[in-house]
Write a structure and sequence with these properties.
377 residues, three-stranded antiparallel sheet, disordered N terminus, binds nicotinamide-adenine-dinucleotide, binds zinc ion
């Protein structure tokens, strides 16, 4: 694990995408540097902050003063908190508010919030005046380690999640780890599932470090910062190699095929958070890999033990939402993933830290596995 060069200095992770490269700045108190960093990147521009009402209450003042100390004028566009804001109606309102605020092509949009705001404001930035640059200031753990990095933006439609969107890379990401101090513990824990996912996907040493240090990560301080920087570094490397998910970027979906099916079954009403579904999905992916003889059951148990220790769900029976029967689950999986000739692409694991893309998994085998899991409840 690499720590910042000196206490108080941020960790900087570079996302290398030729002329669209950018930095992720990670550290306590870094929101303060927003204006100076923005002025250095785009001197003389103005900004529109897009945020949700909850985040505005906590952090709009700090964001605005960080801009004004650098002489940057800003306006704010506010949306209600929650996944429902990731839709056409709110997107329309945000785009028109940006135009009303006379945001020109050379100006900047600041997405201040969790993944909902990052995805919504990022998409608005991609389409307003055919594309305006934007900065991500993620305020949830999930957004700091995942959604703010990599340029995927989207809204949901009645057909499903993230179905209308664009690839639009930010020009800067500022992860102020102090902002997570006000995040409800359940949200922090859910975001942590994505942190553990990085280790389980491609770095067994990082997973072992998390097993030993997760309490410190939850407590804040240097371990939290280290875990966020490591996660960002791993995502940055993958995005740098496969920006548009034609290959390796799909590994980031470890646990998400099962996870999305469970999330859809729960109905996005807050009973099951994305990260909670991912924890169970990753556990199931390792158990399924063990059932196929790819990893030992000892390793699958280690995954389950860690998520359980942290307080994340690891059994279908733990879910607060009603768990559908295997047929319904398979229907939901088929909705999320293309099933071709009874085969689906899955992210499976050969070891802790060794996930791989398995393109030809038999849907019948997945169904049998789920039937067996559900019968054990
Ligand atoms: N673009 C991507 O690559 C990508 C990746 C993963 C997830 N996502 C998307 O991210 C979204 C989920 O993001 P999320 O989990 O951050 O949810 P979110 O944005 O809804 O935030 C969760 C809740 O926490 C509140 N909140 C945010 N920051 C806070 C803070 N610092 N203090 C107190 N409260 C705070 C919000 O108001 C909200 O109620 C989903 O829509 C998902 O599709 C996108
Ligand atoms: Zn996820």
């Amino acid at each position: 694990m690499t720590a910042p060069a000196r206490i108080g200095e941020p960790s900087i992770v570079a996302v290398a995408l030729a002329d669209r490269s950018y930095d992720i700045v990670i550290g306590r108190g870094q929101l303060h540097s927003l204006g100076q960093r923005m002025a250095a990147l785009r001197p003389g521009t103005k900004a529109a902050i897009v945020s949700d009402e909850t985040v505005i209450k906590h952090y709009l003042g700090a964001a605005q003063s960080a801009l004004s100390i650098a002489g940057i004028q800003s306006t704010c566009v506010s949306v209600p908190p929650g996944e429902k804001s990731k839709g056409f109606a709110t997107l329309e309102r945000v785009c028109e508010a940006l135009l009303d605020a006379r945001i020109e092509r050379g100006d900047l949009i600041v997405a201040l919030g969790g993944g909902v705001i990052g995805d919504l404001a990022g998409l608005a930035a991609a389409i307003v005046r055919r594309g305006v640059d934007y900065i991500q200031v993620p305020t949830t753990l999930l957004a700091q380690v995942d959604s703010s990095v990599g340029g995927k933006t989207a809204i949901d439609t009645r057909q499903g999640k993230n179905l209308v969107g664009a690839f639009h890379q930010p020009i800067l990401v500022i992860c102020d780890t102090a902002l997570l101090d006000t995040l409800p513990e359940r949200e922090f824990r859910a975001g942590y599932a994505e942190v553990a996912k990085y280790g389980l996907m491609a770095d067994a040493g990082f997973f072992a470090w998390l097993e030993a240090n997760w309490r410190e990560v939850f407590a804040g301080g240097p371990a939290r910062e280290q875990a966020i920087a490591k996660s960002c570094r791993m995502k940055a490397v993958i995005v740098g190699r496969d920006e548009r998910e034609t290959g390796e970027r799909a590994l980031l979906n470890l646990g998400h095929t099962f996870g999305h099916a469970l999330e859809m079954a729960a109905g996005f009403d807050g009973t099951l958070l994305h990260g909670e579904a991912v924890a169970l999905g990753v556990t199931l992916a390792f158990q399924f890999s063990a059932a196929r003889g790819l990893v030992s059951s000892r390793e699958a148990e280690r995954v389950e033990r860690h998520f359980a220790a942290v307080g994340l769900p690891t059994e279908l029976a733990h879910l607060p939402a009603k768990v559908p029967d295997p047929d319904r689950l398979m229907q939901l999986i088929a909705q999320d993933k293309k099933v071709r000739h009874g085969k689906l692409t899955f992210i499976l694991a050969r070891d802790l830290g060794a996930a791989f893309i398995a393109p030809e998994v038999d849907a019948a085998e997945v169904r049998a596995f789920l039937t067996q899991k559900l019968s054990k409840q």
